[in-house]
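Re: that backbone. Tokens:
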């Protein structure tokens, strides 16, 4: 597999992504040219039918595999609003692979050749059903072409420190202010509009691209940006403190680049 062009679809409500910097980073790492586009459904036509399809992949019961939802008029209006550039965070669950399918169908065939890779940013919380524990889990990245990176997923999917939940529960049961508990853990997990999102997103973008190029998106090592972090603290460590690929993956990448040359 070879990528000659990468399209990034911006999520304008999340300035902290700093998409221009991300594009430069990817260009340097992968050696393919990167084009930044506006929000996916501003670049491509948003038809009523698409709004209906998006609304129908909402997940209401996280304990059962995907069932198509029958959207109401309100659901469709909600989707219409959330596609506006000014829309704020959306923490409703959507089946990530159903959503991926909708995005894919909106891209013209001429742009679906295998050397073109599409990476879509969204505030929608993508999730996938896990048959190991029979429930849906939030995902920051849905790997495929197009791939989806959920800004809400980056914040909500990897778990916060265990002690944080304990303290939160204690404070709640004592009727105390939760802000104090949050302050105590300041910086140990990502928050909405966190300035660190611009660095965190790099690892997820590389995971999506690695999956496309090699079918292996993740690395076992915490000293690698491809580490699949289940905890916020691991995520911050691998992307902020380490911020690079391990030797093995650096080599994989160099070999791929040589193949292109
Ligand atoms: Zn690695």
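Recovered sequence:
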């Amino acid at each position: 597999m070879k990528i000659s062009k990468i399209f990034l679809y911006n999520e304008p409500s999340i300035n902290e992504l700093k998409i221009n910097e991300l594009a430069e980073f990817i260009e340097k790492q992968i050696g393919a040219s990167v084009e930044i586009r506006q929000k996916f459904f501003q670049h491509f036509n948003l038809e009523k039918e698409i709004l209906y399809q998006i609304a129908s992949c909402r997940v209401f019961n996280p304990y059962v595999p995907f069932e198509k939802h029958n959207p109401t008029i309100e659901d469709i209006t909600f989707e219409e609003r959330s596609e506006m550039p000014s829309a704020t965070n959306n923490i409703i669950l959507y089946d990530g692979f159903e959503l991926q399918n909708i995005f894919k169908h909106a891209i013209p065939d001429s742009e679906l050749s295998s050397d073109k890779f599409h990476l879509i940013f969204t505030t929608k919380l993508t999730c996938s059903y896990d048959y190991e524990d029979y429930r849906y889990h939030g995902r920051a990245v849905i790997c495929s072409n197009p791939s989806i990176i959920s800004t809400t997923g980056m914040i909500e999917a990897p778990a916060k420190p265990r002690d944080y939940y304990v303290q939160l529960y204690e404070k709640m049961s004592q009727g105390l202010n939760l802000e104090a508990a949050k302050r105590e853990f300041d910086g140990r997990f990502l928050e909405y509009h966190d300035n660190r999102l611009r660095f965190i997103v790099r690892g997820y973008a590389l995971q999506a691209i690695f999956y496309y190029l090699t079918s292996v998106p993740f690395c076992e090592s915490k000293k690698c940006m491809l580490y699949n972090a289940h905890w916020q603290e691991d995520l911050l460590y691998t992307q902020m403190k380490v911020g690079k690929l391990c030797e093995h993956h650096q080599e994989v990448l160099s070999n791929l680049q040589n193949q292109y040359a």
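The longest strand covers residues 116-122. The chain has one domain: 5-260.
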